[in-house]
Amino acid sequence: MSIAVEEGQLGGRKLRRVVYEAHQLQKRVSELATEISGAYGPEDRLLLIGILKGSFVFLADLVRRMTIPLQIDFVVASSYGPGQSSTGDVQLLYDPPAPLNGRAVLVVEDIVDSGTTLLNLVPKLRARGPSSLEICALLHKRKIPLDPRWVGFDAPNEFLVGYGLDLAEDFRHLPYIASLQLTDELTDVS
């Protein structure tokens, strides 16, 4: 895919590079769906909890490929403000009302970066008594010793956008994951 072809979607911003093409994402999501489907059965009463807003594209593609009964809910958690780094303060804006006691819970996250969101969220969910609680992350930057059971890709230490990931709510709609060229970078991407 050419970055120039998608330039209209970028609102004048420049990408440094495409890190994962759309076809690579779809292939890996299919693989994850197969692995996860094989790990659970109907008796687990699997509940996937997507962390909004970033996980929504990944979660939608993932569940459409899964072959087992499941339910879906969401949490709205934020540790980012309008900038490019975590504030460290996690705000739970929506907490799922679904009962977790005695059922398998899979938290679906777009990216494990600082780990702040998951390190705050997981203990709260565990306290609600699920029979198991696992994490599936599309991307993992490997900056912290948090080890999700399922990881789509290791991520470079760059600011990534697309496929649900954003910068101040922009770029979530891109069908690929790219590294955003920061305003102080003068290199032209072609």
| Average pLDDT figure | 87
The strand count comes to 9
CATH-derived architecture: 3-Layer(aba) Sandwich
Form type: globular
Order of helices and strands: EHEHEEEHEEEE
Structural Rg:
17 Å
Unreliable sequence segments: 1-5, 186-190
Q: Helical percent range? A: 10-25%
Characterize the main sheet.
6 strands, mixed
Beta-strand content: 25-35%
- Could you tell me the CATH topology label: Rossmann fold
Distance between the termini: 11 Å
Write structural notes for this entry.
- The protein is of the alpha/beta class.
- The chain has one domain: Rossmann fold (3-Layer(aba) Sandwich), CATH 3.40.50.
- Helix content is 21%, strand content 32%.
- The protein has helices at 22-39, 56-65, 116-126, and strands spanning 15-20, 47-52, 71-80, 86-94, 104-112, 132-140, 150-154, 160-161, 177-180.
- The longest helix is centred in the first third of the chain and has 18 residues, at 22-39.
Summarize this, please?
The chain has 190 residues and is α/β, with parallel strands linked by helices. The protein has a single domain, classed as Rossmann fold, CATH 3.40.50. It is 21% helix and 32% strand.
